[in-house]
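Dissemination and training. As part of the outreach component of the grant, students in the summer workshop were shown how a complex can be specified as a set of sequence lines and then modelled as a single object. The example used during the hands-on session is reproduced here so that future cohorts can follow it. Participants entered these lines:
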Amino acid sequence: MEKWTAQKVANYVIHKKQLFILDVRNQDAFADWKIDGENFEYMNIPYFDLLDGVEKLVPQLPKDKEILVVCAKEGSSVMVTEMLDEAGVKAGYLEGGMKAWSSYLEPLKVADLEKGGELYQFVRLGKGCLSYMVISEGEAAVIDAVRFADVFENFAKEKNAVIRYVFDTHLHADHISGGRLLAEKTGATYYLPPKDAEEVVFDYVPLEDATTVKIGQAKIDIQAIYSPGHTIGSTSFIIDEKYFLTGDILFIDSIGRPDLAGLAEDWVGDLRATLYNHYRQLSTDLYVLPAHFMIIEELNEDGTVGKRFGDLLAENHGLNIEDEEEFRKTVTDHLPPQPNAYTQIRHVNMGRLTPSADEQTEMEIGPNRCAVR
Amino acid sequence: MRTDHQLDVQGLACPMPIVKTKKTMNTMEVGETVEVIATDAGSKADLQAWAASTGHQYIGLVEEGSVLKHYLRKCNEAEEREKTFEQTVSLEEVQNISNDSIVLDVREEVEYAFGHIKGATSIPFGELFDNMEKLDKTKTYYVICRTGTRSDLACQQLAEHGFKHVYNVLPGMTAYTGELEKTI
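and obtained this result:
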């Protein structure tokens, strides 16, 4: 009976390997979210339907594929894997279950910077969140850190870099930001867009349009561009004049939704202006790196998520709606369900709620839903 | 709240709350109730889904801080008895009854607590015999339970003891969509 780490599963996802997932959570939980892999096959049978034995299940399992049993936290998958083992079926279980999957971050190098340094993307496969770290000559900046601050802290240490700056492109509604905690732990300066931060109860440095910081003996610059729409404060970044961090405004195959603070009608005009006017003055050679991916097909061959801006201008439906009224309708009508506990999550990110680690996990359960396709 | 059985699974993680509930259920008689006291947040969705998949009745949940009190009742739909008491009324007719009539809810105390028709009197079927003396035989009784089976038996028992104006309400609380009164 093999114990699989989330890292091993991530490897299968990124390299598009085959895997048979036996998900033993209840049907609602499975319908809401699962481990996505392009070549994964799934079967969902709640563990409580297997308490009397796995005899009926065994003939339905593939013989030519690796089998991974998955549950919410691990306990039930261990039980089912043991039962399968006794019935002569080899299977593994996911250590820590979906809880571990939701928190796992895969750090991937996006690029070596021309003037020296590296840009990393941290792919949170289970939740679709993307965080970034720029490292140059012993200094680092982190953008849109998720709540596992220690992952970024340790990664910087490994690279012998000191985190100087921590940014959030906006006040997140779908996941809990690790920005403030990371800044506290490392002594870095924490920047937030002031228009998103009117209700926050902690100190931060205002992230204004054209704010620019430099790391690594002033060689790499990180430049902020005010780009409202998903939220009123949403800000994008251009790193080293080439990498375009679009936050939750522009994704690979979709665009941001303007309704998570309850102000869709007010913000739709901002979103339009950002995507159709402001962004279009930028070079089409910029490489777009968003704060989320929605579906696993958005991953590049190496597992990173990013694409040339010029390609997105041609291919992304959200950038190709000529009619303003149609655009308004697209981003305000028939929106997907809002992310789990999004109001609570916003309050956590404002510092007005301080839930325990377990409560944070509970709030973040399920997929992110920040986009409109 | 009074239940026939109690099960303490506090501190136990998934799958144990359901494994233990299943074991307890196996020792119970059909119709008996159990209170499962858990702390695993996953038990919220899972016990309900398990009950639905096994045909047992999930009555309700009371949350007291991080303590979760689940109430379930053992069912066996396959053994559903035929209803034989002839005087029946539909749920609709019970909505506007006169002051002289009584809606008698013969479900278990916990089932009643999680929602009953406003003003209904609660006497669980198992206690009806002992409480018969307290009831006024001249009044009209609309007897209701979850699906009409227990109320059917209750009606027969009342009729045998000289109650003349007794009606079984069909199909029962499972079909009731009106306002519910709760005592939890």
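The CA atoms of residues 158 and 166 of chain B lie 7 Å apart. Students were then asked to discuss how this feature might be tested experimentally.
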